[in-house]
Design brief:
Elements lengths: L1 H10 L6 H7 L4 H5 L5 H12 L13 H17 L16 H16 L4 H27 L1 H16 L6 H12 L2 H21 L2
């Protein structure tokens, strides 16, 4: 998996091919296919490797939302350390043994924290989607200077809009364009988890 991750780090997810992995391993593509069926299975193994070693703590009823935030931060850090790998999680549910074990631990955590079954079942999916989508978008901004240029252009465009016609855009322009990645990520988590806590307490 190190060879595949090295390719993703250098060339992005689109640059990952079975042939490139085989070349880096100084093996034939045929030899590689004897270990993995296709690129999809290779990605499953890569994702499993990235999340290898993650553990979910014992739920503390007093601070479980903060514990969840730490888990999410860890997942984000692991994904963002490998370029746009997060894209591999969008529209795909990982089924590798390591990731499935992690999901089992997370669901047990939510149960112990008193989160109702229906919310717990959806929260695992929602947090995974949030982390993957956020981190993938983040990788695009960081990898491509055009992303920052686009944001600057958007900010400049907002400045040209007449405030009397677009008062909310004028009022929130700085909030929309100057908030950093970390602050945005934390705010998103807070919104999600406060909603879960409120719904959990309402029965």
């Amino acid at each position: 998996m190190r060879a595949a991750l090295a390719i993703i780090d250098a060339d992005g997810l689109e640059g990952l091919t079975m042939r490139k992995v085989a070349t880096r391993l100084e093996a034939s593509a045929g030899a590689l296919y004897s270990h993995v069926t296709n690129k999809r299975q290779l990605l499953e193994l890569i994702v499993d490797r990235v999340f290898d070693g993650m553990t979910v703590p014992q739920a503390d009823a007093e601070v479980w939302p903060e514990q969840i935030k730490e888990i999410c931060r860890d997942m984000r850090d692991r994904l963002r350390s490998h370029g746009d790998l997060a894209q591999a999680l969008i529209g795909r549910v990982p089924v590798g043994p390591g990731f499935v074990t992690l999901l089992e631990q997370l669901l047990a955590f939510l149960s112990d924290a008193g989160v109702p079954d229906r919310l717990a079942a959806y929260l695992g999916d929602l947090l995974g989607l949030y982390i993957a989508a956020f981190t993938f978008e983040e990788s695009l901004w960081e990898r491509d200077e055009a992303g920052q240029d686009s944001l600057n252009q958007f900010s400049s465009y907002l400045e040209t809009l007449p405030a009397e016609r677009f008062p909310h855009l004028a009022h929130l322009r700085d909030e929309m364009t100057e908030i950093g990645h970390d602050e945005r990520f934390e705010l998103g988590l807070e919104i999600i988890l406060q909603g879960v806590a409120r719904l959990s307490s309402s029965g």
